[in-house]
Amino acid sequence: MTQQNDAVExxxxxxxxxxxxxxxxxxxxxxxxxxxxxxxxxxTHHSQDGERTVFSVSFHRSYKDDQGNWAKTKTLFAADIPxxxxxxxxxxxxxxxxxxxxx
Length: 103
Fold this sequence. Notes:
103 residues, 40% strand
């Protein structure tokens, strides 16, 4: 008897999910080698104690590649750090304000 493989490729699962949008975006901030953008993501976690909202933060640096096309990376140069810190600070303030308001 042959066993059927019902595994789904990760790409197929990702493509079938609706794309989540960030709760907030900060930037783009001009940086030494491109533009820095910080995003705040809202997620709801379910547990025995009920639902709770948690936030996560992501960032990227946009830059133009050798062909002049925009690309993204998480690699930073020293000059990129100050604008990243501005974005992270704004993201943190956003999260704190949502926690105070219970959203």
